[in-house]
Amino acid sequence: MTTVGILGAGIAGLHLGLALRAADVDVTLYAERSMDELAGGPLLNTVAHHHPLLERERALGVHHWPAAEFGYRAHHHWIGGLRFTGRFTHPSCAVDHRIYLPRLAEDLAERGGRVEVRAVGPRELGGLARNHDLLVVASGRGPLSGLFPRRPEHSPHDAPRRLVCAGLYTGIAPAEPAAVTIGVAPGQGELLEIPLLSRHGPVTALLFENVPGGELAVLNELSPAADPALFRKTVLAKLHEHHPATAERVLDAFALTHPRDLLQGAVTPAVREDFRPLGGDKFALALGDAHVVVDPVMGQGANIASYSAAVVAREIAAETVFDELFCRRVARAREEVLLAASAWTNLVLDPPPWLDELWRGLARDPRRADEFTDNFDHPERQWRLLATRSRVRAFLNS
């Protein structure tokens, strides 16, 4: 029987493990920390799961949070004074990963996958590879962060383009209809307002994407634990000044749910090599954040990680030899979607002047706004529409 070792217990590693167990492949998942520690720890992200990911959950039997009950069906946009709404064909859903990941780890263990809490560094990879036919590295943080070299032709940034300040809040009246609100403050950054199911119940996630050195960068310097009143006051002031579409629905009860429900940091986008030889005809295959890291501004990270895991699982189940030829076939199979999501996200982080034409066109044409929104499910389609000024104009005039 084929045996696969997976390093990393995020959505990429867990979706891969579950898909492999469905194909009767032996799986050991190596987690950097226990699921109890993760569940009680600080906020991990504020990701939304789009329809293709939810369909994979259904196929894997882990769709525990039905989008019909917990999801939303639209994006409201506020971009430099322009307002428009785009609607999904199928709903998306956001669930706190401190709930989501431990539940999927339970599912994996119940289906015969082994979950082992173990820190693995580069020096341990060779020894670990002897226990498995293939190692899949799905952790892009910690000691394995530089394992796979960057591909400079697809990695234009060597530093973060945004400072991330993401938190869970109560006291914000929901948008009508239920939706993610995407606010763009030109020159200052973006705000994603996301209805999210948390351990506190339904809350609102505010994901500030702040330009370094800009007027909202102060949000990354304040601690709600050290001075909760100052933090709340500053968030409210910045909302009213730069993101009025959200500020107009803030209630007197507005508050961060808990100091641990805040994530402050930054992401350097990168596309890395697909695989690495470990010696002795063994290879490590990159997955998730170890392979492609995108800024969260377009909400693609978890979705492309799950997509990549599905591709890798399909290729493993169809193969018995996991050599360089196998690794190169995996790279070709998943490349279009992953590179498209990365390129689209980078375009938004450094918007060309003609991107304003897109926003104005979408505000005029609800059908195009719906298509643009639906393509959050399909980054390869989105990139074909947005890659150049000519493509944007053809999309708007089609």
UniProtKB/TrEMBL annotation:
<dbReference type="Pfam" id="PF17885">
    <property type="entry name" value="Smoa_sbd"/>
</dbReference>
<dbReference type="InterPro" id="IPR036188">
    <property type="entry name" value="FAD/NAD-bd_sf"/>
</dbReference>
<protein>
    <submittedName>
        <fullName>2-polyprenyl-6-methoxyphenol hydroxylase-like FAD-dependent oxidoreductase</fullName>
    </submittedName>
</protein>
<feature type="domain" description="Styrene monooxygenase StyA putative substrate binding">
    <location>
        <begin position="140"/>
        <end position="249"/>
    </location>
</feature>
<dbReference type="InterPro" id="IPR041654">
    <property type="entry name" value="StyA_sbd"/>
</dbReference>
